[in-house]
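Data availability (excerpt). The following record was deposited with the supplementary files.
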Amino acid sequence: MIYFDIITLFPESLKSYLGVSILARAQKKKLIKINLINPRKFATDKHKTVDDSPYGGGPGMVLKFEPIAKAVAFAKLKVSARGRSALGGKSKKLKVRTILFSTRGKKLTSSYAKQLALCDKLILICGRYEGVDERVAKYIADEEMSIGDYVLEGGELPALVVIDAVSRHIPGVLGKRESLEEIKGSYPVYTRPDVVVLQRGKKVKKLKVPKVLLLGDHKEISEWRRLRNTN
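Predicted structure:
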């Protein structure tokens, strides 16, 4: 099992996606476990403050160091306890990576996701507003990650992308290893019926499945797919 701890101010925004389809089944089968941790629980003032204005001026608010650092420490404490219980009370070092989402981070790729799937636990820090106090990146996170050359409102969508990309490399999550696009490749696929009718205004067009896929010649089908494989 791989554990994902998501540190987010908006845990409710993640629950609907994580609770359906393949990821829901993977959790039910105990192949993955997902914990949502709100850093507000670790704020010490009565207002549960997690952000403040940036030093040096400028617009927006910056997420504070302390609540995030305490949330990560809490997640790691649970890892240590689990490592001991796995060996009947003896200590076992588990592989844990703490990731902060950032536009400056290393780009997520399939090979990167496959490496992360070897971890016992991923702690994912979701930034918001104008960003996260830089000391989190320097002293709390093991690495910074980006999912592309664009800017999002926060780290929640990247966290979902990482969980989806990493989980599919865990045996049993997809059901069949051959379902991995990295193995079977990426090529055009069709299903029944073999002819569909597309009507646009007065124009009617019949869209047909390539004949080679209907004849049952697996050698010809493999060659057809190989020539159209984009991987």
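Summary of structural features: Helices lie at 12-18, 21-28, 65-86, 110-116, 134-139, 156-167, 181-184, 218-227.
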